[in-house]
TrEMBL record:
<dbReference type="InterPro" id="IPR005122">
    <property type="entry name" value="Uracil-DNA_glycosylase-like"/>
</dbReference>
<keyword id="KW-0227">DNA damage</keyword>
<dbReference type="InterPro" id="IPR051536">
    <property type="entry name" value="UDG_Type-4/5"/>
</dbReference>
<protein>
    <recommendedName>
        <fullName>Type-4 uracil-DNA glycosylase</fullName>
        <ecNumber>3.2.2.27</ecNumber>
    </recommendedName>
</protein>
<keyword id="KW-0411">Iron-sulfur</keyword>
<dbReference type="Pfam" id="PF03167">
    <property type="entry name" value="UDG"/>
</dbReference>
<keyword id="KW-0479">Metal-binding</keyword>
<dbReference type="GO" id="GO:0046872">
    <property type="term" value="F:metal ion binding"/>
</dbReference>
<dbReference type="GO" id="GO:0051539">
    <property type="term" value="F:4 iron, 4 sulfur cluster binding"/>
</dbReference>
<dbReference type="InterPro" id="IPR005273">
    <property type="entry name" value="Ura-DNA_glyco_family4"/>
</dbReference>
<keyword id="KW-0378">Hydrolase</keyword>
<keyword id="KW-0234">DNA repair</keyword>
<dbReference type="GO" id="GO:0006281">
    <property type="term" value="P:DNA repair"/>
</dbReference>
<keyword id="KW-0408">Iron</keyword>
<comment type="similarity">
    <text>Belongs to the uracil-DNA glycosylase (UDG) superfamily. Type 4 (UDGa) family.</text>
</comment>
<feature type="domain" description="Uracil-DNA glycosylase-like">
    <location>
        <begin position="38"/>
        <end position="180"/>
    </location>
</feature>
<dbReference type="GO" id="GO:0004844">
    <property type="term" value="F:uracil DNA N-glycosylase activity"/>
</dbReference>
Length: 191
C-alpha cells in the first residue's frame, strides 16, 4: 500500500490522538476511569477491530482486550491466522463504563470523534465490528443475529463480541470464520 504505511504521517497523529484520549473529559465516563484505553496497533494495520468498551483489566492497564474476553480474542485471532501485533484494536468508548454496563448513547456520541479519527487515519481495508455496540455506533444498525457474517459498505464486517463467544462456545467457529474472512478481505480478496 502506498502512502501511509507506518510512516510518521500516520504514526504521529495516532499518538497525539491517544494522548488526547488520555486526558479526555467529553463525557462522565472520564470520572470513573483509571486509564483511558485509546487502542493499540501499528499505523500500517490493514485490519481494525472494534469492541464495546474497556473492562476492568483494560481500565487498569490502559490496553484493549487484555482480560478474559481478550484471551478468547487472542486464541481466535491465532486460529484465524491473524497476528495480533499486526492489527489495530480499539473500542467504541475509550473509558470503562461503571460495572461494565453498556455505554450510553451520549457516551458513544461524545467518544465517536475518536473512533472516526482512527478509521480516517488508519484507512483500514477491513473494519471488524465485534458485537452490537460496535455495529450500532459505526453503522447505525442493530441485531447481531442477522448481521453477523455480513459485509457492509465493502469493508465493514459484523461479528460477535469475544465476550459472547466466552459465554457461548457454540459461537466460536463462526467468530473464527468471520475473522478469517476479514483477513481475506484485508489481503485483497473478495468479501
Ligand atoms: N471488551 C471490550 O469490548 N473491549 C475491551 O477492550 C475488553 C473487553
Amino acid at each position: 500500500r502506498t502512502g501511509s504505511g507506518g510512516s510518521p504521517a500516520v504514526e504521529d497523529p495516532l499518538r497525539s490522538l491517544a494522548e488526547e484520549i488520555g486526558s479526555c473529559r467529553r463525557c462522565p465516563l472520564a470520572e470513573g476511569r483509571t486509564k483511558a484505553v485509546p487502542g493499540e496497533g501499528p499505523a500500517r494495520a490493514e485490519i481494525l477491530l472494534v469492541g464495546e468498551g474497556p473492562g476492568r483489566e483494560e481500565d487498569r492497564t490502559g490496553r484493549p482486550f487484555v482480560g478474559r474476553a481478550g484471551s478468547v480474542l487472542d486464541r481466535c485471532l491465532e486460529e484465524a491466522g491473524i497476528e495480533r501485533s499486526r492489527v489495530f484494536i480499539t473500542n467504541v468508548v475509550k473509558c470503562r463504563p461503571p460495572e461494565n454496563r453498556r455505554p450510553k448513547r451520549k457516551e458513544v456520541e461524545a467518544c465517536r470523534i475518536y473512533l472516526d479519527a482512527q478509521i480516517e487515519l488508519l484507512q483500514p481495508r477491513t473494519v471488524i465490528l465485534m458485537g452490537n455496540a460496535a455495529a450500532r455506533a459505526v453503522l447505525d444498525v442493530e441485531g447481531i443475529g442477522e448481521l453477523r457474517g455480513r459485509v457492509i459498505r465493502g469493508r465493514f464486517l459484523v461479528t460477535f463480541h469475544p465476550a459472547a463467544v466466552l459465554r457461548n462456545g457454540n459461537l466460536r467457529e463462526a467468530f473464527i470464520a468471520d475473522l478469517r474472512r476479514g483477513r481475506g478481505m484485508a489481503e485483497g480478496g473478495a468479501p
